[in-house]
Design a protein that fits this description.
Order of helices and strands: HHHHHHHHHHEHEHHEEEHEEEHHEEH
Structural class: alpha+beta
Shape: elongated
Number of helices: 17
Organism: Drosophila mojavensis
Strand content: 5-15%
Region (Disordered): 28-168
Distance between the termini: 93 Å
Oligomer: single chain
Largest sheet: 8 strands, antiparallel
Binding site for ATP: 350-354, 413, 457, 508-512, 537-542
Protein name: arginine kinase
Number of strands: 10
Keywords: ATP-binding, Kinase, Nucleotide-binding, Transferase
């Protein structure tokens, strides 16, 4: 399309230049014609009055195709010599109609204002005739530039019998000749004007889209560059911490999977929204080489940005949940299918089932502002205060809590406490105690932690081993809270939490169990527990020691299975441990 437009433009320019050349030689050619006898050559411009005997050639009639038709009004009265044998050419009467290009040819002696009283003036008519009146052979010698040879019909360099090849112009317009000189007639495409218009619109639209796309790509490149810019001080801490971890005897999953290649690939990355770095993810494990896992997700996007580290750790901890796996939909199953794991109360001291939840629309602890902590506490307090029945209770904010009340709740294993070095190293204890609190029902069998490790820890617990009753209470509470507070959920990872060990179902069903015979050989205890995907911890939970031979044993897997299946693993495992303890 562009080539066609350019060709048309070039042809138009050539036509204008030829017209100008013809016009500039017209006075000389006119003088030559005045000094020659009349010949039957093709008619030129109307002859002046002193040559009344010259008859226009019949072939000269179409010599002015591009000139506007003159007025048909008779003008014989304005001719100086009326008794002419032929109709004299129209005098130079200026018509009101606009004169098209090329410019009118005017002899040097023409008076600017034509009058009918000057018939003897040699002035040519004001209508443009130069393009339609080719010069005679005699005049061609006076022209500085000959016509192109492509304008001759016989292609004889202007030396044929048609007066320099210009006779062809009598039959075909100059525009077509000029066009055919550049593009053979056989190859001239037939252009559909509507199609050409549509093509023009498409071209402009395409160019505009390409320009907009280039701007977007430049912006995205800028964002990517910004998202991979990590402060030099952060990089220095990462390099130092990684060197110390690599040289340590740590057994953490962090050390196991943070290879040099993975470290170099992730150290310059940050999450898009909260700009969390690799240091935010691994700083707890870098400071605490005795960590079992060693990493936390400062925000939900970290699970994607730092997937090269999270995915293998998740697969290892959750029993083979691969990066290509998808966590199943939530399913609490038949809540009446579980019974009491220790009807005689010989081994199980207490049973607890809990789950973690993150409130939709908020980041995890390291990225929360003080205002967000206060806002979340208000939402949780008002929501829990509206619960009825067995779940009815009271919310206790940590801010302003009396020391005696706080200590009693800790001793009852209800209240979490500040000072966990693993969470502090992960930057999860900011603005303490703002936004933190605890809720429990009247009989203290149902409680909720607000902003300890996760936004919410929903817990159902009681003395003894009646897992069925405890599980039913938890399921009822979770469903009631979710009606009032939406939870963060991912299609692949399930419910999202601060620690990757709690992803998926987030369910942790545990017992405080006293098995002195198995405890005497802790390696044997852990071997049997691992067979049923159980985790053995101290009496007061993770990172604590057993007190009086009492261990906290729970299901380990939380991903790749439903809530019901997770609880059943614990139920089956504890039942088997009690049988083994009895047999020893």
């Amino acid at each position: 399309m562009f080539a066609l437009w350019y060709l048309t433009f070039a042809v138009d320019e050539i036509r204008k230049r030829l017209a100008w050349l013809f016009s500039s030689n017209k006075p000389a050619a006119q003088k030559a014609l005045d000094n020659k006898p009349a010949t039957p050559a093709p008619a030129a411009a109307p002859a002046p009055a002193p040559a009344p005997t010259v008859k226009p050639s019949p072939a000269a009639a179409p010599a002015k195709p591009s000139s506007p038709a003159p007025s048909p009004k008779p003008v014989a009265a304005t001719v100086a010599e009326p008794p002419k044998p032929v109709t004299p050419p129209k005098p130079a009467v200026v018509q009101p109609a606009p004169t098209p290009a090329p410019a009118p040819v005017v002899a040097p002696t023409v008076v600017p204002k034509p009058t009918p009283a000057a018939p003897s003036s040699p002035a040519a008519p004001n209508t443009p005739t130069a393009p339609s009146t080719p010069p005679k052979a005699a005049d061609s010698a006076k022209m500085p530039i000959p016509l192109p040879k492509s304008l001759t019909e016989a292609n004889t360099n202007g030396n044929d019998n048609s007066t320099n090849g210009n006779a062809a112009l009598n039959d075909v317009s100059l525009d077509k000749k000029l066009f055919d000189a550049k593009l053979p007639a056989s190859k001239v495409p037939k252009v559909d004007q509507e199609q050409l218009k549509d093509a023009s619109k498409d071209f402009i639209h395409g160019e505009a889209n390409a320009f907009v796309q280039s701007i977007k790509e430049a912006q995205q490149a800028g964002y990517r560059k910004q998202d991979t810019m990590v402060d030099a001080a952060v990089l220095a801490k990462l390099e130092e911490g990684y060197a110390k971890l690599a040289a340590s005897d740590s057994k953490s999953l962090l050390k196991k999977y943070l290879t040099k290649e993975v470290f170099d690939n992730l150290k310059n990355k940050v999450t898009p929204t909260f700009k969390s770095t690799l240091l935010d993810v691994i700083q707890s494990g870098l400071e605490n080489h005795d960590s079992g896992v060693g990493i936390y997700a400062p925000d939900a996007e970290a699970y994607t940005v730092f997937a090269d580290l999270f995915d293998p750790i998740i697969e290892d901890y959750h029993g083979g949940f691969k990066k290509t796996d998808k966590h199943p939909a939530s399913d609490f199953g038949d809540v009446n299918s579980f019974g009491n794991v220790d009807p005689t109360n010989e081994y199980v001291i207490s049973t607890r089932v809990r789950c973690g939840r993150s409130m939709q629309g908020y980041p995890f602890n390291p990225c929360l502002t003080e205002a967000q902590y206060k806002e979340m506490e208000e939402k949780v307090s008002s929501t829990l205060s509206s619960l009825e029945g067995e779940l009815k209770g009271k919310f206790y904010p940590l801010t302003g809590m009396e020391k005696a009340v706080q200590q009693q709740l800790i001793d009852d294993h209800f209240l979490f406490k500040e000072g966990d070095r693993f969470l502090q190293a992960a930057n999860a204890c900011r603005f303490w105690p703002t936004g933190r609190g605890i809720y429990h029902n009247d009989n203290k069998r149902f409680l909720v932690w607000c902003n300890e490790e996760d936004h919410l820890r929903i817990i159902s617990m009681q003395q003894g081993g009646d897992l069925g009753e405890i599980y039913r209470r938890l399921v009822t509470a979770v469903n009631e809270i979710e009606k009032r507070i939406p939870f963060s959920h991912d299609d692949r990872l399930g419910f999202l939490t601060f620690c990757p060990t709690n992803l998926g179902t987030t369910i942790r069903a545990s017992v405080h169990i006293k098995v002195p015979k198995l405890a005497s050989n802790k390696a044997k205890l852990e071997e049997v527990a691992a067979k049923y995907n159980l985790q053995v911890r101290g009496t007061r939970g993770e990172h604590t020691e057993a007190e009086g031979g009492v261990y906290d044993i729970s299901n380990k897997r939380r991903m790749g299975l439903t809530e019901y299946q997770a609880v059943k693993e614990m139920y089956d495992g504890i039942t088997e441990l009690i049988k083994l303890e009895k047999s020893l």
